[in-house]
Amino acid sequence: MKILLFSLMLMVMLTLLISHPLLMVILILSITFNINMIISLILNLSWNSYILIIIFLGGMLVLFIYIASISSNEKFKKLNIRVLTPLLILPLYMFIETPTLFSANNNFMASISSMYMASMMHFTLLIMFYLIITLLISVKIADNKFGPIRQK
Predict the structure, then answer these.
(1) In angstroms, rounded to a whole number, what is the distance separating the alpha carbons of residues 148 and 83?
(2) What residues form the membrane-spanning segments (predicted)?
(3) pTM of this prediction exceeds 0.70
(4) In this predicted model, which residue has the larger pLDDT, 93 or 2?
């Protein structure tokens, strides 16, 4: 369970470094598979995760075709090691700092309620900061003065 959560946090942080759209789609697919594995382990039901992955893969197929038509000749960029090192250290810090959230022995409902306790303030603030940044980036991308992404 800890390995799945660690790899999920690492993949989410890698999305900040990737600029190529096709590589981003591959990373989003791997994040989805990872989340579905975590859901099936927590709930002990695989049907919910199967339904979720089928719906998500249908949407990602449409997105993949759209992005492939936009960026057919864009080159991949190398990742900067100086930026990648803190991204590898931050998930380890989260596991050391918050051991009760990521332990597999806890009850699912108890781990959800412990997320908002005072000891989990750093983790909760990190999630809030991530959601604010995601909202601002989405608004910036969908700005009306730039128009559609691809014009004929």
Answers:
(1) 31
(2) 12-35, 47-67, 79-96, 116-142
(3) no
(4) 2
